[in-house]
C-alpha cells in the first residue's frame, strides 16, 4: 500500500476511531478545568442532602469524604490514565479491538442509555432554576405538568447539545471557564448560610471554634440519624460512597475518552480538582446550604429542590449556578454518549450521532422522575460497567506480564469474543448476587466484582487463544500504527496552529475576571465574619446577593472575551 493510499484510508476513517494525534494532546490545566467543572455540578445539591437523609455524622463526613475522594483520584491515576495515554483510544474503540463487534455494540448501547439519562437529569436540574425564576410550579410527578417547563427544558437542552457537538476542545473550554466560578459560588453559598444555621442552633451568627462548628453540624446538618430517625451510615460507608460515586468513569474506564488527550499519565492526578473541590468542598457546602435554606424556608432539607437551595444561598447567582452546574455535567456526559453512539453507527460522524442522542436526551429530560432517581442510576450503572473495565485492564496490563498476547481476539479475526461476553455476564451475576445476599456494603461491591472478572477473563482468554503468539499480525499492527502516526503528523502540519494570547487587553480582562471572583469571596466573608447580630446578617446577605450577581455577569463576560481573543490568535 502506497503512502497516498494510506493517507486516503485513514482520511476516510472517523477521527474518533484513530489514536489521538500528538499535536492534539493537552496540558494538565485542561483536565483540571474539565474535572473541576464536571464534578462541581448540580448533583452536588442533591448529594449534599443525601448525606443528611442517610444519617451521616459530621466527623464521618469530613474524614470519610477526604479519604474516599483521594482513593477515587488514585483510581483514575493508576487504572484509567495509563491505559488511556498508552493507547490514545476511547474505551469504545479499544473494546472493539479485544471483544469484537457483538459485545462492543451491546456495551455501547448500555453507555448511550446511561449517559443520556445522566445528561437528561442534569438538564432537568438546570431547568428547575429557570422554573423557579419564572414562577412555574414545581414538577413533582413523573411526567411534566406544565408546558412552559417543557419549553424551558428544550431551551436548556439545546445549549448542552450545541456545545457537545464541537467535541473535546469545546467541552474543555466551556468547563475551564465555569470551574473557578463554580468553586467560588459553592464556597460562598456555604459562608452566606452558615450564620443562619448558627443563629438557629447556637444563638450567635458564627461558631466560636471547632467544637462549636462540629456541634452545629451534628445538631442541624449531619445528625447521625437518617430520615426515619434511625442511626445512619458511618465512616466506612461515607468513604465507600465517595470512592464508588465515579466507578463508572475510573474502574469502568469510561474516562479513557477524556484522558486519551493527556500528554502524561500523571495527569490523572488532575481529577483531584473535581474530587477535592466538587466531591469534598461542594458536597459539604451543599449540606450547609441545604440546611441553611431549610431553616430560612421552614422545611426539611430533603423537601427542597436545587433551585430553592441555590436561591436562598446565592440570590440571583443561585439560578445561574444551578443552570451552569447542570450544563457542565450534562455536556460532558452527552459527549460520552455521542462517542458511544458513534462507535455503534461508525459510518456516521460523532456530530450526527450526538445530535440524535441529544434530541432524545432532551425528550427524556422533560420527565422529572429521571432526576429524582439519579443516585440509584449512578450506583447501578457503576456496577454494570465495572466488569468491562476489568476485562480491558486485564487485557492491557496483565496479559503482557504473564506472557499472553494483547489484542489476541483481533489477531484471530474474531467478531464474537466468548471470554469477554461470559466474563461480563458472570461479573454481573457475581456483583449483583453479592448485593442480593447483602454480603457487604453496596458501595464496595465494585472491588470484588472487578477482581473476580479479571480472574475469569484471564482464565477464559487463555483457553480461547490469548496464550498463542501472532507474530505476523503483531507486525502488521505495528506497521499500521506507524503509518497512522505519519498520517497524523502530515495532517497536523496542514492544520492552523493557535498562538498564545499575550496582549495587554487580554491580560487586563483576566485580571478583571479574577477580581470579580475575589470580590465575591470577600462579600461572602463579610456575611460570615462581620455579622454581629441577625439584623446585620440579613443586611449583609442582601448586599452579597446584589453584588455577587453583578460580579457573576462581569466574570463570564470577561472570561468568555479572553477565550474568544485567544481563539482568534492563529497562524496561517
From TrEMBL:
InterPro entries reported in the protein's UniProt record: CodB
Keywords: Membrane, Transmembrane, Transmembrane helix
Keyword Cell inner membrane: no
Transmembrane segments: 61-85, 106-127, 147-168, 180-199, 238-259, 280-297, 309-332, 353-371, 377-394, 414-436, 442-460, 508-529, 544-564
A GO term from the CC aspect: plasma membrane
GO terms of molecular function: cytosine transmembrane transporter activity
Protein name: Purine-cytosine permease
Protein species of origin: Maribacter stanieri
Lineage of origin: Bacteria, Pseudomonadati, Bacteroidota, Flavobacteriia, Flavobacteriales
